[in-house]
Amino acid sequence: MEEAISKNFIEQIIEEDLKEGKYEKIVTRFPPEPNGYLHIGHAKSILLNYGLAKEYGGDFHFRFDDTNPTKEKTEYVDSIKEDVEWLGADYDQTIYFASDYFDRMYECAEFLIKKGKAYVCDLTPEEIREYRGTLTEPGKNSPYRDRMPEENLELFRAMKNGEFEDGSKVLRAKIDMTSGNMNMRDPILYRIARMEHHNTGDDWCIYPMYDFAHPLEDAFEGVTHSICTLEFEDHRPLYDWVVKECEFLHPPKQIEFAKLYLTNVVTGKRYIKKLVDDGIVDGWDDPRLVTLSALRRRGYTPESIRRFMELVGVAKSHSSVDYAMLEYCIRDDLKLKKPRVSAVLDPIKLVITNYPEDQVEYMEVKNNQENEEMGTRKVPFCRELYIERDDFKIERPKKYFRLYPGNEVRLMNGYFVTCTDYVADEDGNVTEVHCTYDPASRGGNSPDGRKVKGTIHWVAAPFAKKAEVRLYENIVDEEKGVYNEDGSVNLNPNSLKILKDCYVEPSLEEAAPGDSFQFVRQGYFCLDTKDTSEDHMVFNRIVSMKSSYQPK
C-alpha cells in the first residue's frame, strides 16, 4: 500500500475549489518585477506556481510585472527569463508583460472614476502622507475627494495627455480613510512619471501602481490562484476591492505563503545592487551571492534547487532555513553524477627516485567509485608528481598518517611510496619531497598484504594542466550577522580566496565552461562560465566535501 502524501495548505485550497466547481482549470503565475536579478527565494515561488499548475493539469503564466520604469531594465528581463528556463518551469514559450495591458488598465481606471470609486487628488506626496494618519489614528479625507466623476474624468485624461507636471496629481481609489488597514486609506492608483519604459517607450506618462495593476493582470489572464508571499497579506483586501469594483465575473483568489529565509545570506535586491555598484562583487552573478545566476555560475544544478524546495516545504508562517541544507542538496545531487578527478591546489613536487626517468604508465581509474556506469579513464603516472603541501610534514603531528620522513603512504590509484628525503629553500619552505616506490604495489595494494594508513592524491607533473581555483565562503561574516546597524552588510574578508598556481589532471583540458567535477579530497568544483578562456581554466568551488548536516 502506497503511503499517502500529505497536501500543503495551498493544495488543500485548490482541491476544495475544484471540488466545489469554482474553477474549471487552474491557472497560476510567476510575476517578477524586472528591477534586479532573481535570488533563491524567487525559486520557491517559481517552482511552487509551476508545480501546482502541472499537478492539477492547469496553465502556468510567466509574466513581467513591469509597471515601474524607474527601476526596470532589459538586462533584468533577459536574466529572469534565463533563470526560469534553467529551473525547468515550462511557460509554453509565452511571456506576458503587465505593460501590454496598459490600455486595459487605463480603461479600468476610467470605469472606477465613472462609478465614483476613484478621484484625482492634487495633494503633494508629503500632504498625502500627513492626511493618511497612523496605525493608531484614522486618516482624513482629501479636500479633492468629493470632485464629481465628470471633473475627475477630465483631469485624468489630461494627466494621460501630459498636461500636468510629474508628481502634481495622482489618481486615488475612494475607499475609507478611517480603515484599520492603511492600504485601504484611498491608495494611489496612478501617478505621473515621464520615464522611458523598456517595453512601451514613451507612449505613456502615467503609470499604474503595483497594488492596482497586479490584481488586474491576474484577472485579465484568468489566473485562478494568485499565490504570493506573506508581506502581501495586508494588501489582500485592496486586491479583492480592485477585482470586485472592476466587476470581473471570475476574480482570482490571493493566497499567501511564507517567504524562504536562508541563514546568513543577502537576498535584498537593494543590498545586492549596492555590493555590485561598489565593486565588492563582480556582478549579480558573483558566486558568493545567492542570486540564481550566481548559484548557476558557481555550479548549483536545477535538480539541487528543486530538491531543496521540496525539503523546505510550503508553510503559512515564517521560519529560517540553514544554508547547510542547500549545500546538502547539491552534494547529494552531484555525488553520483560527476567524475572524481585529481587536482592539487597548493602544490609541491614529489620525485620517485627509483622510478625510471623516461617511463610513463597509464593507470585505469574509475570515474566515480559509487557509480560503475560512469566507466573509467586513463591517467598518466611518472617519476615526478605534484602533491598537496599539507600532505607532507617534516615533523609528524599527532595522528598524522600522510607523508613524513620514513613513512609509507598510498598514492591513490598508483603505488605505495616511502619518504626518504626532502628539499627546502633558504627560508625553510619545502620545495620537493623524495620517495621510493614499491613496483609490486601497482594500483595501491601490496601483494604481501601490508597496510598503510595514509592515502594521498597526485597529478603527474609533465602532464598537469595549470588552473586558477577560487575558494568561496559566505560573503557575510556569520559571527556578526548579516547587517550592521546602519544597514550595510557585515562582509567576511575571507569570502574569496584565489589560488593561481594549481594543477589539475590532463583529462580536464577537455572540460567546457559549466562542467563540474569532484576534486578528490577537496570538494566539488565547476569550470567558471565567465572568466575561463582557452588558455586559462578557472574553477569555482561549489561546496566542500563533507558536512555534519543531515536533513530532518
Topology, number of strands? 27
Largest sheet: 7 strands, mixed
Distance between the termini: 24 Å
Mean pLDDT: 94
Range of helix content: 10-25%
Domain tRNA synthetases class I (E and Q) anti-codon binding: 455-528
Protein name: Glutamine--tRNA ligase
Domain Glutamyl/glutaminyl-tRNA synthetase class Ib catalytic: 25-335
Catalytic activity: tRNA(Gln) + L-glutamine + ATP = L-glutaminyl-tRNA(Gln) + AMP + diphosphate
Describe the model:
Pfam families: tRNA-synt_1c, tRNA-synt_1c_C, tRNA-synt_1c_C2. Residues 339-438 form the Glutamyl/glutaminyl-tRNA synthetase class Ib anti-codon binding domain. A motif ('HIGH' region) lies at residues 32-42. Its EC number is 6.1.1.18. By secondary structure, the protein is an alpha/beta fold. It contains twelve helices and 27 strands. Strands 12-25-26-27-23-24-13 form a seven-stranded mixed β-sheet. It has a seven-stranded mixed β-sheet with strand order 21-18-19-20-14-17-22, with no helix packed on it. It has a four-stranded antiparallel β-sheet with strand order 4-5-6-7. The protein is elongated and about 100 Å long. The model has no long low-confidence stretch (mean pLDDT 94).
What's the layout of helices and strands?
Layout: H1 9-19, E1 27-30, H2 40-55, E2 59-64, H3 74-87, E3 95-97, H4 102-114, E4 118-121, H5 125-132, H6 149-160, E5 170-173, E6 188-192, E7 206-208, H7 210-221, E8 225-229, H8 236-245, E9 253-257, E10 261-262, H9 269-277, H10 292-298, H11 302-312, E11 320-321, H12 323-334, E12 340-341, E13 343-344, E14 347-352, E15 361-366, E16 376-381, E17 384-388, E18 408-411, E19 416-424, E20 430-437, E21 455-456, E22 459-460, E23 465-472, E24 496-504, E25 516-519, E26 523-527, E27 537-544
Parallel strand pairs: 1-2, 2-3, 8-9, 10-11, 12-25, 14-20, 18-21, 23-27
Antiparallel strand pairs: 4-5, 5-6, 6-7, 13-24, 14-17, 15-16, 17-22, 18-19, 19-20, 23-24, 25-26, 26-27
